[in-house]
Design brief:
- Pfam families: PG_binding_1, SLT_2.
- By secondary structure, the chain is mainly α.
- Among the domains are: 2-73 and 136-182, Orthogonal Bundle (Helicase, Ruva Protein, domain 3), CATH 1.10.8.350; 342-396, no CATH class.
- It has helices spanning 2-20, 25-44, 49-58, 63-70, 79-86, 89-101, 103-113, 117-128, 139-147, 153-170, 192-198, 214-228, 259-264, 299-307, 311-324, 342-354, 368-380, 391-396, and strands spanning 137-138, 178-179, 237-241, 257-258, 268-269, 281-285, 294-297.
- Strand 6 and strand 7 form a beta hairpin.
- Helix 1 (2-20) crosses helix 4.
- The longest helix has 20 residues, at 25-44.
Amino acid sequence: MKRNLLRGAKTLLLAFFSALLFVPAHAQESFSQCKTRLNEMAVNRGIDRETANSVFAQLTYQPRVIELDRSQPEFVQTFPGYFSKRVTQWRVDKGREMLAKHGALLAKLNEKYGVPPHYLLAFWGLETNFGSYKGKMPVLDSLATLACDPRRSDYFTQELMVALQLLQREGLTAQNMIGSWAGAMGHTQFMPSAYINYAKDGDGNGQINLWDSEEDALTSAANFLAQLGWQRGFRWGREVNLPDNFDYTLAGYSDRRTVAQWSALGITKTDGNPVGTGDLTAYLVVPAGHQGPAFIAYPNFRVILRWNNSEFYAIAVGHLADRIAGGPELSAALPELPAYSRTSILSLQKELNRRGYDVGKPDGIIGPATRAGIRQFQTANQMIPDGFPSLEVMQAMGIKLDT
């Protein structure tokens, strides 16, 4: 209870001080001056002056956006926690329902773009629960707030300009452009730059509306994935079984091999058959260490990462797609793992560096460098070198767990 109260107080203080950022008169003037500059920039880029003036006159600063931009999660999410919350029976059932509803369209999209229906549905399900939650922040206000903030001003200024182009091109209204705090929009949560470059009119009404048209959203997702490099006729990857005494130093993108080579190493599908005999390149992903499931990732896995650069996300999309198409649940059980605090991971990184396993500047994030350092430590200490910060590793390194 005390910990929850402290956490709640911390959140309130963050919100309070974030709100203070633009409360003083000079700060209000600063946002006002920024809007004036952006208004002129929009006009210079082809936005009708009357439209630009009307939009910018109504834009308001969103302190919550800055708070979210600055905030970091207190705990580091593990694969079991991430996966179990996203690949749910509800999403599987809803995906199959949407497959029946949009079957004809999805078949046409598969023929044109080469992206099978179940993958489009999996993206849709993970992004917005099939359109049931598209965000609640005013997109133009959020983008203007971030464009006037120095941290990533150039990026969000560009996204704001593109959003205004979309508003004008598609006959949208600022009031209807609702999305995430960072400006992602519609059923598929496209940023404005993705919207303007890849979105398509799927229902043929002459407008591309990713909020109100499921047909537009699915068509746009198919085009986006095709443009990102989706390989027609291939899977994302699959869950696999690893042989006893497998060398876990072979896991990761840096050690890519053909499926024939992986088969020669004893890796099989979960039904015991070889993963393949061809020259398709793949790599091994072990997101929860040697005690959890293992996956072989094909080139389309990398395409999913271009949509969202998270291996957890890519596995969730792939497996949810498989389930929607009638595939089984995971063969391997998800291990019970603690939710490590960022403080604990920072301590781990500092200790790895101190012991000579260079993982770079400690940041509390388990990335490739940290996994490599863990693997080196495990190898030196006769542990299974899966690069995963297991309890065994944390205890061996004397890391206090702040859970």
